Each structure stands twice: as C-alpha cells, then as structure tokens.
DNA sequence: CTGAAAGCGCTAACAT
DNA sequence: ATGTTAGCGCTTTCAG
C-alpha cells in the first residue's frame, strides 16, 4: 500500500519483522539466534517467544550472501540405486549434520559430464566444500573446483593425484586378495565377470589379473559389460560363462548384486555352489549374508569411508592441518559358504 | 587496497567483474545468461567468452534473494536404503531437472520429527515447493508448510486430507488384492509378516485383514516388528512363523526384502516354495524377478509416482489449475513362481 | 550487551 | 537493446 516502485519481497516474516515487534535492532535478533550467550537472557527469551509466535524461518540465501558461508557441502555419488553408496551417504550425513552443516546430495549416473554439471550447480549454491566419488573427473570439473578454492575430498578409491584428500581403500589389492583367496582354496579356472565397468570395477579386474598372473594361471575367462549391474545381469553372465567355459570352477563377480544373480541362476540350473562352482562377490552388502548358500565377498568400509571423508572435510573447513592426503581404510575378505 | 572498513566478499568472480571487463552494465550480463534473446548477438558472444575465460559461476544465493525464487524444490523420503524410493527420486529428478529446477533430497529415517527438522532446513533454503512421502507429518511441519505458502505434494499413499496434491496408490486395496490372490489359489492359513511398520505397511496389513475377514478366515497369524526391514529380518520372521504355526500354507510379507529373506530361509530349511509354502512380497523390486523361485509380489508404480508428483508440483508452481487432489496410479499383482 | 551503517551479489522495476 | 536505481534479508564491521 505504500510507495510505488517497491520490490515485492517474499512476503514471509523476516528478521526485521521480529526486531520491530520486539523493539530491538535486527542484529540483536540475529545474535539471539546464532550466539545466544551474547544477548541478555530476558531479551533472548522475549525474542525467542516472538520467533515461535511468528513462525519466523531465517532465510539462508541472505545469510550465505552476507557471510559468504553457506554451512552446506555437496556430496556427489554415482548412483542412489547402488546400495554401496547409501551407507557412505549415511556416514557423511551424520558427521556433517552434527557439525551444523547441511549435505546436498547429487547423483551423476556414473557420468563424469553429469558430475561436472552437478559441481557447477552446487558451486552456484556456494557450498563450503565438496565430497566426490572416485578420482575420475573432467578437466573443467577440476578447474571449477580449484578456482572455487574450497576443500575437496575424493572417496572410495585412493586417488594418485588427489584434488585434496583421498579416502578409501585399494581396489586393486582388494580384487587381488579375493582372487588369491580362491587360488588358496585350490581353484585354477577362475573367471571374472563385471558390469558397469566404472573405474573401481576396472581396478578390481586388474587385481584379479595380477593374482592370476602371479599364480601362473590364465586370465582368459573374462566377460565384462558396460550395462548397469543387476541381479538379472548376474544371471546372464553366469549363463554365458558356463556355456563358454564348462570347466569353470570359480567365478569372481565384481559386486554382490551380480554375484547374487549368478547364485540364483546356479540354483535354477542345479549347479551346486560351492561344490560345482565357487561364487564370490564384492562389497558385503546385506544380501550376501542372507542367501542360501551365503556369499563369500569382500567387506568394504563404506560407512567408515563416509564418516572419515566428512571428518577430513571438516578439518579442512576449519583450516586445521591435514595429516595425510591418502587415507586407506582397508578391506576384508569375508569367507562364507559360496566359496 | 581501497577504503578501510570494507567487507571481504567471497573473492570469487562476480557479475560485476564480468560487466566491468566487457564494459557493460551488470543487468546486461544477467540478461545474456538468463534471457539471451534480449541481448544483441555480438554482445552476447563477447559476454559469454568473458564468462568462460573468467570461470564465472553465478551466485544463486544472491539470485534467490533478489528474485525470491530459488528454482529449487525439496524432496523428502523416509530412507535411501529402501530401494523403493530410489526410483521415486529418479522420476522426480528427471522431470524437475528438465524444467530447470534443482532437487534437494532429504531422508527422514522414518521419523516425522526428523522430517519436521528437514522441512525447516529446506524452507531456510527458500525452496519453491516440497514433495513429501506419506501423509503423516507433525503439526508443526504442517504449520510451517502452510505458512510458507508454497505448493506441497504428498506421495506414495493417498492422503485423506492432503496438504496439496496427493499422488500414489491405495495401499489398503493393494494389501487386500494380494491376499485375495492367495485365497483365490486355495490358501486358507495365510500369515502376515511385517517390519518397520510405517503407515503404508500398516495399511497393507489392514488390507490383509479385510480380505481374510471377508473370506471368513482367521487373521490370527500375524507378526510385526518395528525394527528395520532386511533380508535377515525376513529369515527371522519366517522361522518364527513356521515354529508357531506349523500348518501355515501362505505368507504375505509386507515388502520384497522380507520376502526374499524368508525365501532364502525356506531354502535353508528345505521348505519347498511354493509347494510347502506360498511366499508373497510387495513392491516388485528387481530382486523379486531374479530369485529361484521368483517372487510373486505387487508391482507398484514408483517411478511414475515420482514423475507425476513432480509434474503436479510444476503445475502448482506455474499456478496452473490443479485438476484433482488425489491421483491414484494403481498397482498390479505380479504372479510369479513363489505363490 | 546493544546498535548503526554498509554491503554481500544479484534481479525487479522503471527508464531510455 | 541497454542502463539506472533500489532493494532482497541477512551479517560484518566498527562504535558505544
């Protein structure tokens, strides 16, 4: 109703509204919220009551703009449907939340270009830090992150040349260890089956190769696909393996989804696991312990990777000294019934 | 180097920097980015080149503050580890992204209080709209959303009294339909097993009850737990059922994770499915089609719920007329081998 | 412990 | 097609 040529505003209750109602200045209300001990108790209570009454919700965009801190970080994972990352997310979220940060989650669909787009978007939100999955990023993504001058953590695999800190475990060694486990059990004709061969899966494949070479065994029994990983794909891969190599006696599938799918297909074909064929997976997802027979696999520290990544990011955000740039959280071969 | 008492700023390249470099006003740069056709081509190209050179990234906080539109919506799901919601997220994300919105995802861990906290947080980010899971929310959450005066969609179940639009399917009818399927197959001693009995699971339970009553059958064979759903929990529930009710001839588990776990436990105990016991799940997750025997279940339109929820939200954001407030996307009993 | 003034980086509104 | 001015809602800086 006042002047012409007035901006509309959001129509919501603002800090100024509260200040006016209580009869103090805006900054006092701001202090009552953010640093309550710097405001006298009586005033603080009066302000708090007014805030509750009015249903005031601070506008973070304004806060971020004024302070150039958003108290927000970005977490980029390849996929939500890949259960591996749900625990990583949980770990990151718990730690960051407890320190007053909000986590913005994005999924790149295993595409570095989509990852680049997400990084750009989240930088527009003025995130204070970024946690990325893996070490493969586009040049432009690296440039944007460098120029933004904010802390970056890369997780899950150990980066050779980290943008900041790298938290994970050695995927090559894990692939090698599990293959050596099979070799130790007396298996010789050991296949590798992979789908959605992202960089980490490729590293596991390399581990399998190295183990086979060192044992003087053939690394010919190999089928990989770029298609997404799934139970159905595990079944298909099993079918193809037994058709092409009837003498196969152990199969390493690059994740538990594939391994479970292969196991189900074995049941359908009356291939007895592990008697006729040893089956081994990767990640130790919940399903691995539950199938009949249960799946031998590699337990990976997913939750811990999330927690540690968050803690390292916090350390950088607080400008504390960073201990190391590569943090290896290890892995464990989990012997069960299938191999 | 200029005056004393100067604010620091973020140190990043700003719109003003680009404008100064190109020798135009800020608003022209802004237009070149947002409404390119309102700027002459030559100027547009010059500006674009400068933006690329300088690696300029717009500050959305500033934009949102100035325009009171964040081009951002919040999507709240109970859990990431529940695969049911990964497809919902995908559906929402695809639609919103294509319309230039960013989706902020939060998970409440099946807690309405945590949901309330998330709503508060996301309102601070000045989201333009909110998509919630389910129809159960705290009073304060409802108040905040109402006061924020932004469009709200509730999804997965059909709300009796929706905050805005409700998109989903009838969980009671789905539970009833699957039970009637079992009854139609001649089963009489039909149990219901549930875990993490959220509102939707309770509705399915109600459906089971109604079907049993109408058929004159007993609804005594019931075990539920508040603990999270898992394969292991499915196995436990199966074990408890066969111990307490040895004459059980069909078991409806309130989701596929439980059903798969129960199936595995049957294999371990040499209970033949479906010969000795019919097993039926809910949701038609990928695993249902892959187990041996495959799982009979209820296919739920998860992806479609996401897509439609997003579209309804967009309709409200664009202040178009909203057709209906309850949108029923249906379900389908998926007959497979286990029942 | 409280406040006044200035400004964060951008866009809406009104020019030309 | 381009510019000027004001202001979004908050926090920083400096004063008292």
Automatic annotation (TrEMBL), chains A, B:
The HTH lacI-type domain, residue ranges: 13-67
Keyword Acyltransferase: no
Taxonomic superkingdom: Bacteria
One Pfam family hit: Peripla_BP_3
Keyword DNA-binding tagged: yes
GO molecular function, one term: transcription cis-regulatory region binding
Keywords: DNA-binding, Transcription, Transcription regulation
Name the record gives this protein: LacI family DNA-binding transcriptional regulator
Organism whose genome encodes this protein: Corallincola holothuriorum
